[in-house]
């Protein structure tokens, strides 16, 4: 039996990029992609490598041009020991962000409710209270309870027959807009990780370019393969990044 190793073949990445670009240009809710679990895993790893190359390239260029402090990373490093930082940053936060920005790319009342709840928590934390997602401060329970109320309300409303049909039809007709919104909102909201000054806002499209790469690829894998694949992609990315920060580079 001949075993194929696509990840070492340049043509494989060319084909993978072609599929990704075609989807980005014209995203559809139910792409006609029939692949085995093995091929989906290969593609997820391949897309991870593509994303890593793109993100590292942008980050390397920014180091020589403009590199503001990431306040969220600094805050987490100060508040958590390495093991807890790896657990929260490598598992909890990726799960939270994938539910917030990718889960509802496929419409389902439960998915929509979970996304609405986590997105509410995200906006309250980042935009309203200027806090941190993992920080338990005086606003924490207000943020949590409000998010739960929104989630339950959205679920009860969206599961009713007429509303459910209306939303399903909306997803089918406007999926391109929904996909693009999920990508741009995921990327641009990461500007809240930095100090909100005029310079950072002007640099927003460039500073958040790595997150935009992540969002477009994660959205594609979520729709084409299933929710577990972008979640795995996100966790691997964060775990590798956090692990590198533990290395004694001095």
From TrEMBL:
<keyword id="KW-1133">Transmembrane helix</keyword>
<feature type="transmembrane region" description="Helical">
    <location>
        <begin position="82"/>
        <end position="103"/>
    </location>
</feature>
<keyword id="KW-0472">Membrane</keyword>
<feature type="transmembrane region" description="Helical">
    <location>
        <begin position="202"/>
        <end position="220"/>
    </location>
</feature>
<feature type="transmembrane region" description="Helical">
    <location>
        <begin position="110"/>
        <end position="128"/>
    </location>
</feature>
<feature type="transmembrane region" description="Helical">
    <location>
        <begin position="232"/>
        <end position="249"/>
    </location>
</feature>
<protein>
    <recommendedName>
        <fullName>CAAX protease self-immunity</fullName>
    </recommendedName>
</protein>
<feature type="transmembrane region" description="Helical">
    <location>
        <begin position="178"/>
        <end position="196"/>
    </location>
</feature>
<feature type="transmembrane region" description="Helical">
    <location>
        <begin position="140"/>
        <end position="157"/>
    </location>
</feature>
<keyword id="KW-0812">Transmembrane</keyword>
<feature type="transmembrane region" description="Helical">
    <location>
        <begin position="41"/>
        <end position="62"/>
    </location>
</feature>
